[in-house]
Amino acid sequence: MKEVISANQAVSYAVLAAKAQVIAAYPITPQSSIVEMLSGFCARGALNAKFINVESEHSAMAACMSASVAGARTFTATSSQGLALMHEVLHYASGLRLPIVMANVNRALASPFNLKADLTDSLSQRDTGWMQFYCESGQEAFDTIIQAYRIAERILLPVMVNMEGFILSHTYEIVDIPEQKDVDLFLPPCPPRECLDIDNPSMFGSTTDYYINFRYKMHQDMERAKAVCEEIGADFKKIFGRDYGLASSYLCEDADLILVTAGTIAGTCRVVADRARDRGLKVGVLRIRMARPFPGKQICEYLKTAKKIAVIDRDFSPGCGGIFAQEVKAALQGSASHTPVYEFIAGLGGKDVTDKDIEKIIEQTRNTPNPGDSTWIGLLK
Amino acid sequence: MDRSAKIKFPIAEEELMYSGHTACPGCGAALALKYVLKGLGPRTIIVIPPSCVGVIGAGFPLSSLNIPVLRIPFESTAITASGIRAALDVMGKEDINVLAWAGDGGTFDIGLQALSGSAERNDDIIYVCYDNEGYMNTGIQRSSSTPAGAWTTTTPAPHVKDTPKKDIVRIMAAHNIPYIATASIGYPADLIKKVKKAKKIKGTKFILIFSPCPTGWRYSPDLTISIAKLATETGIFPLYEIEDEEKYILSSKKTEKPLRDYFALQGRFRNLSEENFQSLEKRVKKEREYLKRMAG
To answer: With a cut of 0.85, is the ipTM above it?
Structure first.
């Protein structure tokens, strides 16, 4: 059924369709409407789940963690400071190999205070052992939540589904909400876990010198997750007709200059790429959808024709630069390519990244012989 | 011969905590856990944050407890128990006890926020705090449960702690939960009776167990039980229950022994000044009167 809804609402409907069993959440702008809607579903009995109104995000993730060990399908949603507060428990969740799914509505981290979009909140959690997806539309947010449960329950690692605050979370657009029977076909009930088994008691999470082995296993499974995500994506396409991939490319096949970004900036990039093509410039766009595990090989494959690469980051690692730019450069280092990568920081704190900004980025990349320091777009006078 | 036919044991013989655990000799916390598990029985899941008991339980792949154990973040004892409860309820496994188990550091200090959250929602869990009045696992640092006048490694002599022990029971009482009790490893039958009572009540149950620590309190390990009994007999750790939010039930045990007897046995009070002693004595008296008043 097609509905005009916000991406936050799309996430709530997806969690309803996924039949989550324990939801623990704490409100934070711009995430709150996700859990408001879910608490309504639980209260009315539309969703047979236990909703725990916790006193903090730390407790939200701790509740999801323990409920997941006990075998329940769990969900929480957060943003920015809330995600930062969860940091400790994110490591526990992945270390315990729990298939928790969380929506993170990207928002800038204080200080100074800013409620708008910025991907640094989730990207600064990239070493916590969570798989990470970045969405571009309400439809993709819905679909990714459904896929995330399949992926998480197969790989046994948690998944964070990210979308930019307000720009995506509060934008209303057409979302096709599939029939429940199709979702059930794609996503069977959560496989039983026998961890906290009264009849066969064991201890979980205790001290061990095998720590390095546990981490190695996590690394292997993260690597395996790339192929599994592609496989589950193909399965999803068979039922629902939509496919997103680990990264989505637009006109990259013959492009001389490829714009690389994540999230909603990609849409504007595609419009600008079309215009550039009209002027005879071979511009392509690559949107990175999966950031952990980082699909470096696939990304290098998409980038192989490019003579220059411009990465636009709505995120920033102080003292280093744009985070996706570093990831792309690291991936290229492992390939035969020595394509120069130009770094652009844009849209921090929800600043609009306009078509004019992207045209400027293309011009600067074309006209500068060597990439230097990162260029900051949209600084106020 | 069937012994139970002749002698009535008030305490279950079945052990859920086995020998081979790694507690220090004379550890009060090990006894507290052993007794609580005897009271709850095998259909119990326990969550344990970083604490002595986290270590006592043994490292991977061993466990000294014959119940499922989940090791959890320090500040999340109550909420992780609530999370397991929620999962069990939604999966139709309602007959399993969920035991949140933490020390005084994990309860009075870092875990207080989550504990308050679970208690305010009245989540159906049993929360036990084994109270040894300091961060013993990390090397005897002060907690907000450390009494005034006590030495710890972060309240070094002669600059011993100068503020009183936090009254966690009154904090929990302010949450209007259905059952609160104080208990002591000095009185196992009373302790287990309280655990069994808590097991039957729906909602958040809170039990504070006095658990002396020879290593941290600086006394000979053979004195653990004597010190636990003395704490109650001198009135510094009174035993009582609060049922249905307001019904105070005081233990009938006499609490008139001189307070000096209790302090004299412990090296941690070697630097207790006369001024500190006077104020502690006053506080004990005040608390005794307060509890009598509450019990009507």
So the answer is: yes
